[in-house]
């Protein structure tokens, strides 16, 4: 993608610059910047956007827009694009993988064999996957893809802002969904409404045999409450691909044996990243040619 970008525009790798180099660039050439492209989990902070007077497009390589101030972009006349309909399958696959890894204790079993413990000791029993109740918070494209896979294991329920034309059981609140579910998948978009939605009350409702899987954004879960719930046995475990302060993950989460942690890799396959890159490039080409954006958020 970067090689093709370089054929369209001069490319500056912002995060390769020191703080002093960033300040110098903004002072000397900030008025020349027309496009910012970044992962959805990075976005374009408001303070940076305000220093780019010629900015016309923020082309996100992802579907989350929580790291871009859409009101500011609208006020400035800056287009914002994402890469929808490219990554739902991969994200859903990883969500199911995290669930199975948790309930069947796959990482612990792998470590048991690698450490040479098998001849001397047996692994503790795991928990069955098939027959579990699958709760999904947020039934957009990713949540729906998770539901399609999860229904092969057991009953599916969901909670979202509005009802969907599906035959899954709908719950009025996240707490009610958590109380019903054995596995709670977090697939809601990160917004002001969903910030900290998975709190101590929701985790208490999920219960001591329940597991949490978050492939949305770290901000949707109250991380301190989750750590306490895992340490105290309030819930059985958590599979996490996202964290509040990525890439810094709390040591408490890293040392807990009832977690499976991945470094925000839900969409990280060769095939999907190629499709995402094509969309990013398509949006940038359209912007430079003065044509309608391919996948505009606004």
TrEMBL record:
GO cellular component, one term: cytosol
Keyword Lipid biosynthesis: no
InterPro entries according to UniProt: D-isomer_2-hydroxyacid_DH (IPR050223), D-isomer_2_OHA_DH_cat_dom (IPR006139), D-isomer_DH_NAD-bd (IPR006140), NAD(P)-bd_dom_sf (IPR036291)
CDD domains per UniProt: HPPR
One term of GO molecular function: glyoxylate reductase (NADPH) activity
SUPFAM superfamilies xref list: Formate/glycerate dehydrogenase catalytic domain-like (SSF52283), NAD(P)-binding Rossmann-fold domains (SSF51735)
One Pfam match: 2-Hacid_dh
Protein name per its UniProtKB record: 2-hydroxyacid dehydrogenase
Record-annotated D-isomer specific 2-hydroxyacid dehydrogenase catalytic domain positions: 23-297
Keywords tagged on the record: NAD, NADP, Oxidoreductase
Keyword Ribonucleoprotein: no
Family, as annotated: Belongs to the D-isomer specific 2-hydroxyacid dehydrogenase family.
Membrane-spanning ranges: none
Domain of life: Bacteria
Domain D-isomer specific 2-hydroxyacid dehydrogenase NAD-binding residues, every copy: 96-266
Organism of origin: Croceibacterium xixiisoli
């Amino acid at each position: 993608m970067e090689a093709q970008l370089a054929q369209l525009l001069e490319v500056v790798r912002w995060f390769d610059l020191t703080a002093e180099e960033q300040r110098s660039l903004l002072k000397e050439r900030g008025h020349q910047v027309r496009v910012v492209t970044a992962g959805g989990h990075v976005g374009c902070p408001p303070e940076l956007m305000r220093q780019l007077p010629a900015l016309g497009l923020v082309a996100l390589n992802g579907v989350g827009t929580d790291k871009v101030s859409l009101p500011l972009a609208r006020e400035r006349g800056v287009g914002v694009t994402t890469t929808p309909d490219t990554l739902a399958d991969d994200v859903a696959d990883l969500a199911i993988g995290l669930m199975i890894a948790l309930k069947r204790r796959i990482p612990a079993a792998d470590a048991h064999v690698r450490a040479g413990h098998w001849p001397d000791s047996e692994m503790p029993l795991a928990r069955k996957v098939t027959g579990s109740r699958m709760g999904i918070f947020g039934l957009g494209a990713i949540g729906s893809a998770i539901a399609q896979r999860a229904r092969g294991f057991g009953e599916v329920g969901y909670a979202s802002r509005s009802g969907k034309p599906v035959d899954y059981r709908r719950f009025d609140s996240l707490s009610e969904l958590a109380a019903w579910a054995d596995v709670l998948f977090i697939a809601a978009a990160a917004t002001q409404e969903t910030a900290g939605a998975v709190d101590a009350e929701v985790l208490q409702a999920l219960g001591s045999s329940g597991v949490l899987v978050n492939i949305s954004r770290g901000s949707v879960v109250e991380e301190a409450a989750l750590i306490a719930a895992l340490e105290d046995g309030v819930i059985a475990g958590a599979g996490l691909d996202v964290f509040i302060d990525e890439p810094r993950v709390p040591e408490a989460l890293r040392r807990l044996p009832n977690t499976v942690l991945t470094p925000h890799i839900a969409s990280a396959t060769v095939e999907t990243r190629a499709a995402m890159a094509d969309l990013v490039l398509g949006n940038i080409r359209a912007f430079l040619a003065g044509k309608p954006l391919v996948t505009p958020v606004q």
